[in-house]
Amino acid sequence: MLRQQDVGHRIVVRRIVGIREGRPLFSDALGELVELSETHLTLATAQGRMRVPRDEVHRAKRVPPARRPTAAAVVDLELAADESWPAPVRDRLGDWLLRSAEGWTGRANSALPVGDPDRPLPAAVDAVERWYADRGRPALVNTPLPLAAPVGAELDARGWSAGPLVLVQTVDLAALSAPTGTAPGPPVDLVEARVDLVEAPSDDWLAIATARKGGGLPDSAHHILTAVDQVRFAQVYVGGTLAAIARGTVTGGGRWLGLGLIEVVPAARRQGLAGQLVRGLADWARSGGATHAFLQVEQRNVAAVALYRKLGFTTHHTYLTRTAPPPGPTA
What we know:
Elements: E1 10-20, E2 23-36, E3 40-45, E4 48-53, E5 57-62, H1 71-84, E6 89-93, E7 96-100, H2 121-134, E8 140-145, H3 149-157, E9 161-162, E10 166-172, E11 196-198, H4 203-213, H5 219-226, E12 231-238, E13 241-251, E14 256-264, H6 273-287, E15 292-298, H7 302-311, E16 314-323
Parallel strand pairs: 14-15
Antiparallel strand pairs: 1-2, 1-5, 2-3, 3-4, 6-7, 8-16, 9-16, 10-15, 10-16, 11-12, 12-13, 13-14
InterPro entries: Acyl_CoA_acyltransferase, GNAT_dom, Rv0428c-like_C
Keywords: Transferase
GO molecular function, one term: acyltransferase activity, transferring groups other than amino-acyl groups
């Protein structure tokens, strides 16, 4: 028997789809359980969302989690994400990437340790620390897990701190659809609004992005936001006022839609606008041949994680942003 704690897990459902000669006919469905109520359950399957009345369910059970993605799959997605958020100052340490962007966002100001740094691991971390020190920036390293676990162990030994766990989540664009409801909380009426996709962010769009990140937008931020060949800025106006924004890119050889900066102003939240932004960008990316979408969200952001689960996203892998301890006093 399914329970609320099964939401978010992969399940197989055997449902009754008819009767023939007095005997029930069954059909099986496999997917992630995204909603469970007293009357129905909803699955995110590879073919799309499926809503099943509970009185049609003959049997349902969890299935073991899918195999972890291969190391190559994690590297490919991390590189697609790097393309979608391009730091203006970049260097290489063997295969590792070194990135700096005037301190705007952790992703654009951190090393990405995927591949071979072309030197022993301790020497590679020493080189990372020097590179950021030369630029007057704190040394940060993004460690995709479990791929970069050896790097994490080296950083642990050096006393590096760790930020919140970040979920890198993906969905097949063919299965991406609207949530069946809004984020957790009292029910509200959904607002159907037009999603406009533009090639450059407006001042209003940037103002919402600035409020989200805090402070102003340095020149590096403008580079990160716009220096991608395929990029669109999604926006929804309600009553003549910009109410919701998001950014979408297509990278990774045209396969991946990268979603980010999904933000709804407080007065317009819980009306389904975030889901409409995602669907609008998904339609754009799919029309150009993209097949999958990804986003990055902190695990502790419970409301956002719940929304993305309802849209069909599942966790591909995770990462931690590690920060070097401040330098000690000089003699």
